[in-house]
Design goal:
globular, 22% strand, 3 helices, alpha+beta, 163 residues, single chain
Length: 163
Amino acid sequence: MEKKKIGFELLIFEDETELSQNERKLLRNAMDARENAYAPYSKFKVGAAVLLENGQVVIGNNQENASYPSGLCAERVAVFQAGAKYPGVAITSIAISASPSQHEEAVPAAPCGNCRQSIIEYEQKQKSPISIILGSEKGPIYKCVSVADILPLAFNSSFLKDS
């Protein structure tokens, strides 16, 4: 038996003033998108902003539906919209801002498993990392240099190839 430990480096910023100007702007775009989320059932609003290598920013927010799980998370709305509107243009980073309406959250929420898998598909396709910036109403801001960091042993297209 072999035992292997898998880990990653997480950057933690005290607040948005420690981010670069571009990162701060992207996080603000995610926060603005969050405000327009349609979350009448969970009361958990999420906004996402994707920065493309051409400088374009594409936003998304969660869209719920009474027929669970028919809704869609903010991250996938933004990433899929970027892929549809700007095919072939690499995603450099994504900022995500989540906020429950019942209380202020002091710890950033990370993307769900479905969103991680969707984002890593783009990272693998473009052969370059997508950094993730996570923020909430208050508290620290987390940054990962690649979605692969938060989805180790990711499923990818190599598992689907014919023998």
